[in-house]
Hints:
Blueprint: H1 2-15, E1 19-22, H2 28-50, E2 60-62, E3 68-70, H3 83-97, E4 101-104
Antiparallel strand pairs: 1-4, 2-3
Amino acid sequence: MRAILVILVLAALAACTPMQWVRDEAQPEQVSQDLMSCQQDAWREAQSYSWYYRPFGPFGGHHAFGRPFAFPGSPYYDPFTDPQLQEARLTQFCMHNKGYELKPAEQNK
């Protein structure tokens, strides 16, 4: 039981680690400009696909205790049609193509 608790605490701490995009000899202004450019391009691309590939839904119902619930889409829901997920994937792809790596941020002490 104690080992499981330690593993859960370590996983929670690892999930809270701040990340940043890093490239050799890149100034902070250049990193922020590249990231903003990639995010804008990714948003545009994700929105152009999302109007056409719409999931059915949302579907809802009542569970065993009588409270309502809703699914994010239909039984045929495809996460690749979710514009937010697609935007994140495209942003990451763009930044990797520009030579950046996503690494944990350095702590200033």
